[in-house]
Amino acid sequence: MTSFTASAPARANLIGEHTDYAPNGGHVLPTPLPFHTTVTIEPNGTDRFTFVSEKFPGKVEERGLEEAARGGHWTDYILGVLRVCSTKVKVPGLKISVTSDVPIGCGISSSAALCVAVARAVKALTGASWDDVEIALIAYEAEHDYVGVPCGKMDQFASSVGREGQALLLDTRTLEFRNVAMPEGVTLMLVECGHRHDLAKGDGHKERIDRFHQCEEACEKLGVKVLAELDYKDLPRLEALRPIVAQRARHAITENRRVLEMVEAIEKGDHARQAELLAQSHISQRDDFEVSIPAIDALVESSWEFGVRAARLCGGGFGGAIIALVPNEKVDAWWEFVSKQNPNAGLITTSALSKGKNEHAA
């Protein structure tokens, strides 16, 4: 039988963390990365699905569309997409093969890359007319509703709609977006801290749900649909909230504004302002949203000590990686300094942003 293959990229988020899910409804600024997940599907003549992955050699999983999620098992993401697709087109039983060079659990959205790749493969198989936005929404529904990850729409849009070498300014409330040129003269450094996260289960999942509800409480008490409706001038209103709710709301409100200010700083070529915004983003995630961990803070503080302020936690938190925008001429010295102070850290990738392509990856 004929097989169909599709791929999708991982992403890094320059700024705009925890602004994209429902109670917050803010802006984000992700960019696709030169890591990809590739999915090959082939009808198998049954109504069942078999799954194989190069990451689990010799192991074959078999499941049906009617099955419930298995608590974040890797096949949940694929089955979730197939279930959503089956409400739109007829999806036959399939043999599904997955290959990927996307690091897992590092905060660069390996799950969204998988979901988008599956949706693209089903589109190729069925001849569906879905555009990139529709594919992103299929991937989001699968991950959020079926797998149960308390995510927003940023990751799926970055993987499906984003273009390599550019940032994607996305308003997660209206889903309006536009491409933004990446900062010039700097290299995007992604460094994992050695502690991987899992937002589909475990402590990270519970903490994410708690913050979701705290932001909902803030919206209710402040009389807004989403916290992105508010601005710096509204911060004094947070004094009426429970302290922990005020913290969460302060992060969501200020982080949304930082995204828009970052775009302005990029378009003006203001590297000092870009750096300060990323540093403020990390401090807010650490102190107000409380999603950082000591290993992440140590990496960021090493970058700051070296003299590169443009560094922060990247991704959902509770582990994962940092992103840093390092002047091209200082990349080697920066990594030598940071890695010496953090021996458990690992370099995920370095991308020369002004060239819009990957230089090397580890």
Question: Would you give an account of this structure?
Answer:
The chain has 362 residues and is of the alpha+beta class. The protein has 2 domains: 4-181, 2-Layer Sandwich (Ribosomal Protein S5, domain 2); 186-361, Alpha-Beta Plaits, CATH 3.30.70.890. The chain is built from 9 helices and 13 strands. Strand 12 and strand 13 form a beta hairpin. The longest helix has 26 residues, at 243-268.
- CATH class assignment of the largest domain: Alpha Beta
Largest sheet features: 5 strands, mixed
Spans of at least 5 consecutive residues with low confidence: 352-362
Radius of gyration: 20 Å
How would you classify the helix and strand content by structural class?
alpha+beta
- Count of DSSP H/I helices: 9
- Number of E strands: 13
Mean pLDDT: 93
Q: Order of SSEs, N→C?
A: EEEEEHEHHHEEEHHHHEEHEE
CATH architecture field of the largest domain: 2-Layer Sandwich
CATH topology of the largest domain: Ribosomal Protein S5, domain 2
How much of the polypeptide forms β-strand, as a percent range? Answer: 15-25%
Short key terms for the protein model shown above:
362 residues; alpha+beta; Ribosomal Protein S5, domain 2; five-stranded antiparallel β-sheet; globular
List the helices and strands and how they pair.
Layout: E1 4-13, E2 27-28, E3 30-43, E4 49-53, E5 61-63, H1 74-86, E6 94-100, H2 110-126, H3 132-147, H4 154-160, E7 166-171, E8 177-181, E9 186-192, H5 202-222, H6 243-268, H7 271-287, H8 294-306, E10 311-314, E11 321-327, H9 331-341, E12 346-352, E13 357-361
Parallel strand pairs: 4-6
Antiparallel strand pairs: 1-3, 2-7, 3-6, 4-5, 7-8, 9-11, 9-12, 10-11, 12-13
Keywords: ATP-binding, Carbohydrate metabolism, Galactose metabolism, Kinase, Magnesium, Metal-binding, Nucleotide-binding, Transferase
Domain GHMP kinase N-terminal: 77-162
Pfam families: GalKase_gal_bdg (PF10509), GHMP_kinases_C (PF08544), GHMP_kinases_N (PF00288)
